[in-house]
Write a structure and sequence with these properties.
Elements: H1 2-20, H2 22-44, H3 49-82, E1 87-92, E2 98-101, E3 107-115, E4 118-127, E5 138-146, E6 157-160, E7 166-171, H4 177-193, H5 202-212, H6 220-228, H7 239-255, H8 263-277, H9 282-295, H10 306-320, H11 328-346, H12 352-375, E8 377-378, H13 381-406, H14 411-437, E9 443-444, H15 450-478
């Protein structure tokens, strides 16, 4: 397992080196990878562990260099066209679109998209051409790509405004049979979650967001309160939600007399079905991939290992898409899950209350440097709020899932569990509003440099190592 983590570090180092010096990576990556590979082969031989580290680092460097070269080709072509005419591109419309009225008439439309391998922030100024873009559509556009001043998220702005610029619908968002079936099932599940509860209940909207990912129904004030309290992560369908739902499904399968050997075969498709029902967000897909590797161990007669599943997920994910190394959402997912794995191992013999406190503190601490570095925010109130909200979110997922399953048997029984989940969600909402209103609970800070983030994680790792040593000593004393 330690070797797996070292391999992940070698891959990340190779990709980071390519992103740090993109020009060199785009030009010299084939020659550099070949020289390093044969040098390692001559120095260590085929069976040496060092050879594997050099190979995985070279592979990461080559994959990231390939991505960098493709992005530079897009930017080079855009610069040529920007001197006289707008740069054409076909864009896929994402789920999240911002529509704001323009002071000069029309509507300003903003969304994130990709021009080939280049992620951009698209801005359509003063749109007045009828129906605006809808998720799932493809649009033919021509605009001006400003790569000299990327935004806070590192994406250059693709501005569709002025002479010769245009945006027109290329394909409509035609619903495929699978998408239509998933939409109907999601709508039926959403209806069942509302049995016995007022339809306009804000806490019910929170339950639907936590279990089904329906964040559009949440009031804006509630989303802002959770963001200021540093607890917005409870909305994202991530590792917490996927693993809780997977454990519930595993219990149901064992009740149905599914043997442990075939548990993974039956469970993995159900986990992916849940992810598709919730919209298949990137965080949910990563969590489902890790859960699939975790439960697949039963098929081969082995004990599941969370750290091995994390390592395999990291390698596959970053080899397939090296740009995720710079994605804040992906960084948070992998950092938080890895910290939780070590925190669970460090509290095996601790009391339940102490264990929950340590896991919550570790979840908060794992995300602090990344949020402070990327967004310049430090949410001290999240430390206190997460002590309540992380266990409460897990409880809400469990109770809401039981209520959803009970709705197929009895409406009164479903109403009981749904109201219990709504009560938990009401507590979560009140805690977030209270935390957001506390003075000093949140604030802005200068973006953290890399060495400060590294020092923070070094201290966090040292604290978990000390806890693990104390826990092992406590286990020996009990024996």
């Amino acid at each position: 397992m330690r070797k797996g983590l070292i391999l992940c570090a070698a891959l990340a180092a190779g990709e980071a080196l390519a992103f740090a010096w993109p020009s060199a990576a785009a030009v010299f990556r084939p020659a550099a990878c070949g020289i390093l590979f044969f040098a390692a082969l001559l120095a260590w031989g085929w069976r040496s562990w060092g050879l594997w580290l050099v190979c995985i680092a070279c592979l990461g460097y080559a994959r990231a260099g390939q991505l960098v070269a493709a992005r530079q080709d897009v930017l080079r072509q855009a610069r040529l066209l920007n001197n006289g005419k707008p740069f054409p591109a076909r864009l896929s419309i994402p789920e999240n679109i911002t529509l704001r009225p323009s002071a000069k008439g029309g509507t300003n439309i903003v969304f994130m998209a990709d021009i080939g391998p280049l992620p951009v922030r698209v801005r359509i100024s003063r749109w007045s051409g009828g129906e605006p873009p809808r998720p799932g559509e493809e649009w033919d556009c021509a605009g001006w790509l400003n790569a000299e001043a990327p935004g806070r998220n590192g994406r250059p702005t693709y501005s569709i405004a002025g002479a010769h610029a245009y945006a027109r619908r290329a394909t409509s968002a035609a619903e495929r049979p699978l998408q239509a079936w998933l939409r109907r099932v999601r709508g039926d599940f959403s209806r069942r979650l509302g049995i016995g509860v007022r339809p306009d209940s804000e806490s019910l909207a929170l339950v639907r967001a936590i279990l089904l990912g329906e964040r559009a129904r949440l009031p804006r004030e509630t989303r802002e309160a959770f963001a200021l309290a540093g607890t917005i992560h409870v909305f994202a369908i991530s590792g917490l939600h996927v693993m809780v739902v997977a454990q519930i499904l595993a219990v149901l399968l064992m009740v149905c007399d599914i043997g442990q050997r075939y548990l993974g075969v039956a469970l993995v498709p159900l986990v992916w079905l849940y992810v598709l029902l919730t919209g298949a967000s990137p965080s949910a897909i990563r969590a489902a991939g890790m859960a699939s590797l975790y439960f697949a161990a039963f098929v081969f007669g082995r004990a599941p290992n969370a750290l091995s599943a994390w390592t395999a997920t990291f390698l596959v994910t970053h080899l397939s898409d090296p740009s995720l190394l710079l994605n804040v959402g992906s960084q948070l997912s992998f950092a938080v899950v890895l910290t939780l794995i070590f925190a669970v191992r460090a509290t095996q013999h601790a009391r339940p209350g102490v264990r929950i406190a340590v896991l919550t503190l570790a979840t908060w601490a794992a995300g602090v440097p990344l949020v402070a570095s990327a967004f310049g925010r430090f949410t001290l109130g999240g430390l206190v709020a997460n002590l309540v909200l992380v266990p409460a979110a897990e409880c809400a997922v469990i109770v809401a899932s039981v209520g959803l399953l009970a709705s197929f048997l009895s409406d009164p029984l479903a109403a009981y569990f749904t109201n219990l989940a709504v009560l938990v969600a009401d507590v979560m909402s009140n805690v977030s509003f209270l935390t957001a209103a506390l003075p000093g609970a949140h604030g802005e800070t200068a973006p953290w440099p890399w060495y400060l983030c590294g020092l923070w994680y070094l201290l966090l790792g040292g604290g978990l190592w000390w806890l693990a040593a104390c826990d092992r000593r406590k286990g020996r004393n009990r024996l």
